[in-house]
Amino acid sequence: MWEKIKDFASTFFVTGDPLIYGADVSIVLTMAAIVFVLTKYKKWGWLWREWLTTVDHKKIGIMYLIASLLMLFRGGVDALLMRLQLAFPNVEFLHSEHYNAIFTTHGTIMILFMAMPMMFALFNIVVPLQIGARDVAYPFLNAVSFWMFLFGAMLFNLSFVIGGSPDSGWLAYPPLSELSHSPGVGQNFYIWGIQISGIGSLATGINFLVTILKMRAPGMKLMKMPLFTWSVLSSCITIIFAFPILTVTLALLYIDRFLGAHFFTMDGGGNPMMYVNLIWMWGHPEVYIVVLPAFGIFSEIVATFAKKTIFGYKSMVFAMISISVLSFFTWVHHFFTMGAGADVNAFFAITTMAIAIPTGAKVFNWLFTMYRGRVSFEQPMLWTIAFIPCFLVGGATGVMLAVAPADYQYHNSYFLIAHFHQVLIGGVVFGYLAGIYYWWPKMFGFKLDERLGKWGFWLWNIGFYVCFMPQYALGFMGMTRRLYTYGWDMGWAPLNLISTVGAFLMGAGFVFQVWQILYSIKHGERDTTGDPWNGRTLEWSIPSPAPLYNFAVVPEVKGADDWWLTKQERANGTAKAEKAQLEPIHMPKNSGIPFVMSACWFVAGFGFVFGWVWMAVVGMIGVALTMWARSFEYDTDYYIPVDEVRRTEASFGRGISCNKS
After folding, report:
1. Which H or E run includes 536?
2. Which Pfam families match (predicted)?
């Protein structure tokens, strides 16, 4: 019996690597510390009532943000481990299988478990406030979306210490992801972690599409919406059409692995290129899903800190919608070398170049907005300024890759690695960091420290160029991606060492940002006005942090940049005095069902990973029971009385005369 237990444990847990043992210890210590603190300070009930069962979009946004920062740390550590392995030739820091697992988890985590939740954090925190809504269209579904994401991410990350991480690349191309090349459970962790979190992502896209279309404040027509809200709308449209492709693709791969089908195995009559087409039919729109909201963030920040209306509002809207549509017509540029023929390659080369037009047009809009503006260089604006040259280089190298004959030389080289990170870090990460700095006071009621923030900013930016500029040259020198070691005779060592130094500089920048947050919790400048940046849109018209109900009185929108217009009218003495009509505010009640349902999905996913049908059945029965319980849950909302609204507003120094009739 004891021997059976030992045999099971040796296959169930990942062993034999000091890095894995270190991860085991850190996980146990972290969990013990969390349990100790919650028990010592008697916070279990508070945690359940205020966070685990919340349907408040602002709290859900904060939880998305915390999760994304943790995933940024995890994915960043993976990146540093890879750069240590490649810093010098013939390094034996990581063996080949471990290196493959690390670059697989790095790519998957950064795209799906860092960029997506960071984007959803800003969706939740900002969109209802910008459109004058008191909540999202489906608060319960919003909570389901978050917990599905989190439990999917936990399932994927668990593979590091249980069962073994996937090692077939972050897009899991067959045959590497088939049983013949990945016989362990690592690839199953990949499939089910992404499947479960993907359900949450699709639900978020639907939720915010309906929220934007149906819950805007009176007077806010589509062409009066803030540009960030437009960018979210564009992104959600793309999510709704792209994520079902990912769901079906991974389902087919799992059927190959679990039931012995041959959708993607050539020796069984399947075609691995079908998988590659399907995964990139999702994969390239996914790039635009995460970058479109960043464009909206930059538009808000440039207008605010240049103190001007955004230049070319209508062209910006048209550009974002165009990108959303064109993103579905570019996927083949990822495999020009597959031999599809000149006609196919020419078509996708043209569409890839075409999508650069609306993308580049926005840069001119931002520059023209700044032209002759009174630009102030606060932290959000610094990240915006840094984005522009970085993204221009990324766009220019993207056009180079779009030239099909030239791509035969660039394909699978480090030139591609540099371009991809140039766009995803320079566009997405810089954009979301700018947004976090910009809306941080609205989330938490205080600004982040400027001095520490600038240290983080410069280390990130200097480190970025030191890390990725040498990789363009390495690509030209013939260094291909997925190499875990190389010889001294290749001549790649100096540039790889420089690139590794740059990666650690970016890591130091992240450390400064964590320090900045911890320092600012106690010492950060408090936002007592609700409008610390002299903003232009509705979220700056309410206190910071926003009250539970967001708006005591739903605003009447007069035009784009409505809050700026209101402030101008007040300054000019032309604002009309209107008596506020306070009424009881309808709000959704908290619910524990989303958390329990997602936990059941986790159990089912774990069963599917190991092929334990009994566990998968138990988990799915739990999912069905929670859905059944929800269908009979009638007491799902309540009203905040007028007196409570008035007291809350008074606590913010905003006394409102009211008429209860």
Report:
1. none
2. COX1
The pLDDT score that the predictor gives to residue 229 is 98
Residue 628, judged by CB atoms within 10 A of its CB (0-12, 13-18, 19+), counts as exposed
> SS3 breakdown of the chain: % helix, strand, coil, rounded to 5?
70, 0, 25
Dihedral over Cα of 391, 514, 286, 204: its sign = negative
Task: Please provide the distance, in angstroms rounded to a whole number, between the alpha carbons at the two ends of the chain.
Answer: 75
Q: Is residue 600 part of a domain?
A: no
Q: Are 610 and 572 in contact (CB under 8 A)?
A: no
Whether 603 is in a domain gets the answer no
Domain of 90, CATH number, reads 1.20.210.10
> What are the tens digits of pLDDT across the range 257-289?
999 999 999 988 899 999 999 999 999 999 999
The encoded tokens of residue 587 equal 């709000």
Report the pLDDT value the prediction gives residue 656, as an integer from 0 to 100: 62
Domain of 562 in residue numbering reads as 42-591+636-652
pTM above 0.85, yes or no: yes
Question: How many other CB atoms are there within 10 angstroms of residue 26's CB atom?
Answer: 11
Spatial CB neighbours of 528, under 8 Å, sequence gap ≥ 6: 653
Q: Cβ(272)–Cβ(174) under 8 Å?
A: yes
Rounded (10°) angle between helices 379-402 and 414-423 = 140
Q: Which residues contact 510 (CB under 8 A, 6 or more apart)?
A: 72, 73, 76, 456, 460
| CB neighbours of residue 596 within 10 Å | 18
Domain for residue 606, yes or no?
Answer: no
As a whole number of angstroms, the distance between CA 656 and CA 661 comes to 15
3-state secondary structure of 640: strand
- The answer to whether 475 and 414 have CB atoms below 8 angstroms apart is yes
Show the CA angle centred on residue 544, arms to residues 539 and 547, nearest 5°.
85
The structural domain count of the chain equals 1
Q: Give the CA dihedral 247, 249, 250, 251, nearest 10 degrees.
A: 80
Would you state the structure tokens that stand for residue 448, as one six-digit string? 């982040």
SS3 assignment for 101-117: HHHHHHHHHHHHHHHHH
Q: For residue 167, what are its two tokens? A: 């090692």
In a domain, 563, yes or no: yes
Q: Are 380 and 434 in contact (CB under 8 A)?
A: yes
Residue 110 tokens, joined: 């950064």
